[in-house]
Amino acid sequence: MRQRLAEPGVVSLQEVRGKTPQEFFDGIGAGELPAPPINALIGFVPLEWGQGRFIFQGTPDMRHYNPLGTVHGGYAATLLDSAMGCAVHTMLEPGLGYTTTDLRISYIRALTRDTGPIRAEGTIVHVGRSTALAEGRLYDVDGRLYATGSTTCLILGR
């Protein structure tokens, strides 16, 4: 996936408004639209997406460490926030946006550079007129759970 992604950049709101969420994410995944800059900064890529579900994958390394010798909790929170928020985005009508209003993360075990690839999976719980709820899980290739999360997003543009 990493090789297919375009250089980091942003898409104008006008261009986003003209696409369904599926078209938008398919465009990023195919390298036709710029990759989000945060993906390059943190080092994660989108793997799978569909209606109500989104998966990102990243591999923690020394760049993500805190002074105590483990991966900073913000790394897991960023992956989960992205996966849950993008799961919300997949459910929106063209022209609508969202923003996170609440983010809750529960850490199960520490991440290290030896953990290897991890996946953040976000799934929809509820989408209403003005808010949406999603939950997330962060796990390794063996299915071990590292963190869970939940989010509330405000739906914008109605």
Automatic annotation (TrEMBL):
Molecular-function annotations in GO: fatty acyl-CoA hydrolase activity
Checking SUPFAM superfamilies in the record gives:
Thioesterase/thiol ester dehydrase-isomerase
Q: Which InterPro entries match?
A: ACOT13, HotDog_dom_sf, PAAI_dom, Thioestr_dom
User: CDD domains of this UniProt entry?
Assistant: PaaI_thioesterase
Keyword annotations of the record: Hydrolase
Q: Which residues form the Thioesterase domain?
A: 69-146
Q: Which PANTHER family match?
A: ACYL-COENZYME A THIOESTERASE 13 (PTHR21660:SF1), THIOESTERASE SUPERFAMILY MEMBER-RELATED (PTHR21660)
Q: Of which family is this protein a member?
A: Belongs to the thioesterase PaaI family.
Question: How is this protein named in the record?
Answer: PaaI family thioesterase
| Source organism per UniProt | Pseudomonas nicosulfuronedens
Q: What is the lineage of its organism?
A: Bacteria, Pseudomonadati, Pseudomonadota, Gammaproteobacteria, Pseudomonadales
